[in-house]
Write a structure and sequence with these properties.
Elements lengths: L2 H11 L15 H5 L8 H23 L5 H4 L3
Length: 76
């Protein structure tokens, strides 16, 4: 079998099943477009947590009819 016959055979058979051919590429968006944000200081995070706790306690106090705050309990 000559090289030309083998090449022609491969060339003709590659077009038998064109439905399975997929064209395209996958882009890792995080690799190209993600910009990390600097981390916040722990003191700032704790301040936000304390503020949320006080707000939640205030809302619960309104529901219960009691004006008690976390800062009044001296838990922190």
């Amino acid at each position: 079998m000559s090289r030309q016959t083998r090449t022609r055979s491969f060339f003709l058979h590659q077009f038998d099943n064109l439905g399975s051919v997929k064209v395209g590429c996958e882009i890792g968006f995080t690799r190209y477009f993600f910009r990390p944000q600097p981390l916040r200081a722990p003191e700032e995070i704790w301040g936000d947590v304390r503020a949320l706790e006080q707000e939640a306690e205030g809302l619960l106090g309104e529901i219960r009819g009691v004006g008690l705050l976390v800062s009044d309990l001296n838990l922190l």
